[in-house]
Amino acid sequence: MPAPIRLRELIRTIRTARTQAEEREMIQKECAAIRSSFREEDNTYRCRNVAKLLYMHMLGYPAHFGQLECLKLIASQKFTDKRIGYLGAMLLLDERQDVHLLMTNCIKNDLNHSTQYVQGLALCTLGCMGSSEMCRDLAGEVEKLLKTSNSYLRKKAALCAVHVIRKVPELMEMFLPATKNLLSEKNHGVLHTSVVLLTEMCERSPDMLAHFRKLVPQLVRILKNLIMSGYSPEHDVSGISDPFLQVRILRLLRILGKSDDDSSEAMNDILAQVATNTETSKNVGNAILYETVLTIMDIKSESGLRVLAINILGRFLLNNDKNIRYVALTSLLKTVQTDHNAVQRHRSTIVDCLKDLDVSIKRRAMELSFALVNGNNIRGMMKELLYFLDSCDPEFKADCASGVFLAAEKYAPSKRWHIDTIMRVLTTAGSYVRDDSVPNLIQLITNSVEMHAYTVQRLYKALLDDISQQPLVQVASWCIGEYGDLLVSGQCEEEEPIQVTEDEVLDVLEGLLVSNLSTPVTRGYALTAIMKLSTRFSSVNRIKKVVSIYGSSIDVELQQRAVEYNALFKKYDHMRPALLERMPIMEKTATNGPTEIVQTNGETEPSVVESKHLPPVTQPSNQANDLLDLLGGNDVVPVIQTTMPTKPASAGGELLDLLGDLSLSGGPPPAPAPSVPTSQPPFLLDGLSSQPLFNDIAAAGIPPMTAYNKNGLKIDFTFERANPNPNIAVITIHASNSTEADMTDFVFQAAVPKTFQLQLLSPSSNVVPALNQGTVTQVIRVLNPQKQQLRMRIKLTYTLKGSAVQDLAEVNNFPPQSWQ
User: Fold this and answer.
1) Domain range holding 571?
2) How far apart are CA 583 and CA 723, in angstroms?
């Protein structure tokens, strides 16, 4: 049989292939020749054939048939054969295949070989693909080589020990004696691998972490020598002495100094030296400075050192390299909560990053800018962020608008500024705002009594300019319906009033009803606004005519409203002024309180229960009476849950799973809560009553509590007493999120023992904003007629960074005032 071609010739031949099919044909032909050679047990060319096979494997072609040939090469006495054999074993074998166990004895023999290079091959292979069984069998040989005086073998043995510890953590103590002298080594390779080994042991064992804290002075000394040492050609990288070792030592110091005052104190000086003496003109120096900053932020460092670290990140923001700017923004975002004032000094640089062309830098800069907003800089920061909102890509508009809303609500210097800011957002990015922005703005306008004339005039002007932004049109329609008389009378004092007639206002609203840009929800707002104006304008006949036209609309929701409004004109005309009177000032708790979902032609519109402005579609009082009957009756109903937008109706069954062994009576699990029947009157308006759906709530001076705090999610409970029934405790949950990403699809569920009754109202949102930039609230009503100690089991489900998270917790530490 002729000698097979060499590896170099094979590479040259494959590279001449012009198509994938031609390359595949060459590979198949060569694989057939290699198989024939393997079958004939050709020892002469086995090494060459396996080398060619490994090259084909690197190109993505199957090479598993060469696994046993690798074992034969490992068993050979020739170094060249062993080298290719071990390389093939690392590439073609892993612990999922039993074949790898056949090489355990060969590796053991080679670990005791007289040639250091053969020992090195065995250590590399074991450290790369050794299974837990192999690691247990060969850990003794690795530990022995870790104590040898040969630096070539010690560095390889240290890395192999890292792999052994990862596979079999209980073998960690075996390597403890050998680690004592590792840091005394002068060879940088041994020092580097030793620090990697110590880092691995500290991360995996708290006992090891405590044991190695005494090495901090030695590590500080090594790092100081690296900084102060002169030029060394074998370790120099861009003018810096062994930056890889410096980075590794800084990472180990970060682990050792975390939550330890003494260790942190010992490394403060050296960290300051590294931060001030490292050259920043090259990327190598920036890498060391970044690790230094992370170490300073993680340990219990001095305040001056933390300011120095943040200033380094501020300098990174001025770097031309996009990666360095992104890293700086991400790091500042993590530290802004703890060192807010120091980060504020770099506010102008951070705002400049909003103009960067790189989208990832723009997003990080936007998130950090919102984190820097406070009462002192709200006007300046909002000006920059609104300018960014005008010019940014569509993918940023939703998050930016949401952030502006939250910041304006928290830090607004005046109500007029607040209203102007939100209207500016709705004008520029109305299609991207969150669903709850409309009811929230309506509540803000309603509560700003002195601003009604100014607001309705501004919104009317906005409608004349643009009706494409549906949230803006909805708010404007609502305000015109409520305060149309102020618009026509020209009572605005904040700016020059405009002269508007009743017919002009009605023309605008009728235009919304027929516009192709209007959604069904917007048309509902417009029709209701026209109906409200029947008690504020004198053009009642025109309004009757418009309403009657839509009694035959193909939109069922619009048709229902029109029919009810027609009936209001005819059968219930005596009730019309009272039903359509101006909305009262809304309670602040209603903003974040229970929301009701109004289904409108397939679209869902959240609106605040107590602030809903469509009287004809208000729920009949029978439903309120049924609800109160359930709360006060003899039948035990464990959970009465309002409609949840994110859960199907079967969610009540899942709630009962929470009860588990929580039942105080020890009986069988309670049956699922029955649906609440409502006796529907012949016409919706017949059921209207002045009785409110929920009782007024009065504060009872009960201290709040933290019910859950894990993985960045915090759940706080605040308590109130319901009037007039003192047996009902009203608990408001406040969910906040300290992680860097929003928690979406958030669902809070609760269950109580059989002796209690529990009602869950709908949450304010199903998204918990990141970095504590907002909270999700939800109201729980608990009936406790026997005044027993309150116990509750809660279930939390949400999605974080694409991963679904679910957790159960039991809450037993309720304050006595909440149930006594």
Assistant:
1) 435-580
2) 23
491 confidence band (pLDDT: 50, 70, 90):
confident
pLDDT score recorded for residue 300:
87
For 552-569, b/e burial (b = at least 16 CB within 10 A) is ebebebbebbbbbbbbbb
Cα angle, residue 494 at apex, residues 490 and 498 outer, rounded to 5°: 30
Q: What percent of the chain has pLDDT over 90?
A: 28
Is residue 507 domain-resident? yes
| Contact indicator for 7, 55 with CB cutoff of 8 Å | yes
- CB-neighbour burial class of residue 250 (10 A; exposed 0-12, middle 13-18, buried 19+): buried
User: CB of 263 within 8 A of CB of 210?
Assistant: no
In a domain, 774, yes or no: yes
Of the candidates 167, 67, 99, 176, the one whose C-alpha atom is nearest the C-alpha of residue 127 is 167
3-state secondary structure 1-26: CCCCCCHHHHHHHHHCCCCHHHHHHH
C-alpha to C-alpha distance for 392 and 355, rounded to whole angstroms:
9
Tokens of 338: 């703890």
Q: Tell which residue, 706, 707, 715, has the closest CA to residue 737.
A: 715
Domain of residue 712, CATH code = 2.60.40.1230
User: How big is the chain, counted in residues?
Assistant: 820
Please check the confidence at residue 630 and state whether its pLDDT lies above 80.
no
Q: Does residue 482 lie within any of the structural domains?
A: yes
Q: Is 97 inside a domain boundary?
A: no
Q: Could you say which of 580, 608, 641 is where a domain stops?
A: 580
Residue at which a domain ends, from 559, 580, 601: 580
Q: Per-residue pLDDT tens for 700-712? A: 478 889 999 988 9
In this predicted structure, the answer to whether residue 465 has a pLDDT above a threshold of 70 is yes
Give the per-residue pLDDT at 647. Answer: 39
Rounded CA separation 70/88 (Å): 6
**CA gap 198, 178 in Å, rounded:** 11
Residue 572: closest CA among 691, 692, 684: 684
Q: How many domains does the chain have?
A: 2
pLDDT digits (tens, 9 = 90+) for 49-63: 899 999 999 999 988
Opening angle at CA 613, ends 610 and 619, nearest 5:
65
Burial 779-815 (b: 16+ CB within 10 A, else e): bbbbbbeeeeebbbbbbbbbbbeeeebeeeeebeebe
CB-count burial class (<10 Å; 0-12, 13-18, 19+) for 21: exposed
